[in-house]
Write a structure and sequence with these properties.
There is one protein chain. By secondary structure, the protein is of the alpha/beta class. It has ten helices and eleven strands. The protein has helices at about 10-20, 35-40, 60-70, 85-90, 105-120, 150-160, 170-180, 190-200, 220-225, 240-250; strands at about 1-5, 25-30, 45-50, 75-80, 95-100, 125-130, 130-135, 140, 145, 210, 215-220. The strands form three sheets. A five-stranded parallel beta sheet has the order 2-1-3-4-5, sandwiched between helices. The chain has a four-stranded antiparallel beta sheet with strand order 6-7-8-9, covered by helices on one side. A two-stranded antiparallel sheet has the order 10-11. The radius of gyration is 22 Å and the shape is globular.
Length: about 250
């Protein structure tokens, strides 16, 4: 999960960062609404968490400008102001508004609920074949047995599951895992994917992750997972003939 945190209060922002890190977030941070709008234009965020009192503009105005620019990234607004200020944030396009001071557990619950809804899931449990992800607890099961993953492995699997059927580039994975900060070489993604595949296959989840050569990786749709890996040759063509034709093409 990549989060843009917008807060003009350094103390408040520091506390928020600690909470977000606990749930595995990669955080970009700014104290200015204008800078936040610029960052949103250039980077792909899962959610924006913003205070409504910013040094350069009203937080509700920042949200309004996001929506006017047709930026549909979900927004959780935080406000220590009156109810009318929170209502302005909703009117501007915030997905949820949390009054300050807030309870840490409630903030995390609201954040996770917004993320689920933005991806089209009403429940925190997402299933693909016999694989089950709990987006709230960040846990994985295969046939009801817990699958132990590292933080990076879980983050990759979560991204693939939430974008099932979409091809994700290695750059997209790096962005999601590191947010442009201290990024390792891009080949590290191949290493993570290899280890993740082995764990999934060892647990009996099959070969869920497909390589799309020259583009990246994708999680196969459930229908594809259930489909047989080998198909019969077309009528009148022997498998040996197919192999021979492939050999000729390769030689050419």
């Amino acid at each position: 999960m990549r989060v843009l945190l917008v807060d003009g209060d350094l103390c408040s922002a520091g506390g928020l960062s600690k909470i977000l890190h606990k749930v595995g977030a990669v955080i970009d941070q700014t104290d200015l609404g204008e800078e936040a709008l610029e960052m949103i234009r250039h980077y792909d965020y899962d959610i924006v968490v913003s205070d409504l009192m910013l040094p350069d503009m009203d937080g509700a105005e920042m949200i309004r400008r996001m929506r006017s620019a047709r930026v549909d990234v979900p927004v959780l607004a935080l406000s220590g102001e009156s109810a009318s200020a929170r209502l302005r944030a909703f009117a501007a396009g915030a997905d949820d508004v949390l009054a300050k001071p807030y309870d840490e557990a409630e903030l995390v619950a609201r954040l996770q609920a917004i993320l689920r809804r933005s991806k089209g899931y009403a429940s925190p449990i997402v299933r693909v074949g016999n694989l089950q992800l709990n987006l709230d607890s960040r846990s994985v099961k295969v046939d009801e047995q817990i699958l132990h993953l590292t933080g990076k492995e879980y983050a990759i699997l979560e991204l693939l599951v939430l974008r099932k059927g979409m091809v994700l580039t290695k750059d997209a994975f790096l962005n999601h895992l590191y947010g442009g900060m201290d990024e390792p070489e891009i080949k590290i993604i191949d290493v993570f994917i290899c280890k993740l595949r082995k764990k999934l296959q060892g647990a009996g989840a099959g070969n869920l992750i497909s390589t799309v050569w020259g583009r990246g990786y994708m999680l196969r749709e459930e229908a594809d997972i259930r489909a047989p890996m080998h198909r019969a040759a077309p009528s009148g063509i022997l498998p040996g003939a197919i192999i021979a034709s492939l050999d000729i093409m390769t030689a050419a």
